[in-house]
Amino acid sequence: MTKNNDSLDCLKVILSVLIVILHSHPLGEKYHYIFYPLVRVAVPVFFIISGFLFFNKCERSNPIDALKRYVIRNMKLYAFWECVLLPVTIYVRDYFSNGMLNGFLQICKGFLFGSTFIASWYIIASVFGICICFMLKRHNSILFLLGLSLYVICCLSSNYQIPSSNVTHIIDHVNSVIYLPCSFASSIIWIWMGKIVAEKDIKTIFRPFVLAGICILMYIVLLIEHIIIVTRDWFTQNNDCYFSLLLVCPFVFLVTKKLDVKVNNARNLRAISTITYCLHPSLSPIIRKLYSMIFHISEFEIPYSIISFLTLIGLCYVASVLIVRFSKKYKILKLAY
């Protein structure tokens, strides 16, 4: 197994930018849906990378120790950003408007089955997903069926909520408590894919440009699915899951892994992607609101939406550089990435 993951670190930066696009709507409110087939690739590929890296370590070290390190590291990451972003989180989520007890219950529910600070669901979903895959690691068929079944339910809960409304009453009740596409339910199939690549040490015979061609073809399938959803008026705000992502995302991962590039200071790229992912959703509404107040214009109107996006990317990059630089002196900052 290759120990070089520089190409994956480069991919992580690209994926983090896609997620910033998802949350900042640079094309404005009217045309933001155009980006969804592209940006929805990001989170599943992040899960695949996490699964691959974790089970790759399990193959080379004590699996129990690897699991402990993974859980502890991610919970420290969660705790760091929870503390840093707490004032913004309380303001945006308005937890305590209906009393202290209700606020704490909402926080506990968000921690276990959703998010507290806006980006946190991915961290918890990764931890739960890795633990489930670890417990069932000797039962790949069961794990695949479990992950696929949950992902189908996630699709019915998001892009296919309208056409399947007659048969999804139970799902609707579950979604009123837990939004499944933003929980560990959506992570298992992707982590399983990363696990398979790590454990079987899959080495495709195809060259990178052939894999890239297959990836483009699969992306065209995703575009067709998106066009069908939009033209049939199924498209809603809950558009996290597409069936075609099951075809696209593995090839995005495989073609990147096949490239096997070498990058100096790849760890810094890793840090930039993590910090950008955790920080940007809390900054985004603040930046949009400021520009709206300054220019007296809708916060999602072009060109100010583009300016907001570029400002957000710039601030995340500056924050990442500063955190990485000062983490050498202040060790606590290493928890940020």
Write the layout of secondary structure elements.
Elements lengths: L5 H19 L3 H4 L4 H4 L2 H19 L2 H22 L1 H8 L6 H14 L6 H16 L4 H18 L11 H9 L10 H13 L7 H24 L13 H15 L6 H30 L8 H23 L11
Features:
single chain, 337 residues, mainly alpha, 15 helices, 71% helix, globular
| Tally of separate helices | 15
Overall structural class, as computed from helix and strand content, comes to mainly alpha
Number of strand segments: 0
Mean pLDDT: 88
The amount of helix comes to: over 70%
Strand content: under 5%
Detailed description of the structure:
The protein is mostly helical. The chain has one domain. Helices cover 71% and strands 0% of the residues. It is built from 15 helices and no strands. Helix 4 (42-60) crosses helix 8 (120-135), helix 7 (100-113) packs across helix 8 (120-135) and helix 8 (120-135) packs across helix 11 (188-200). It is globular, with a radius of gyration of 20 Å. The model has no long low-confidence stretch (mean pLDDT 88).
Question: Would you kindly provide a brief summary of this structure?
Answer:
With 337 residues, this protein is mostly helical.
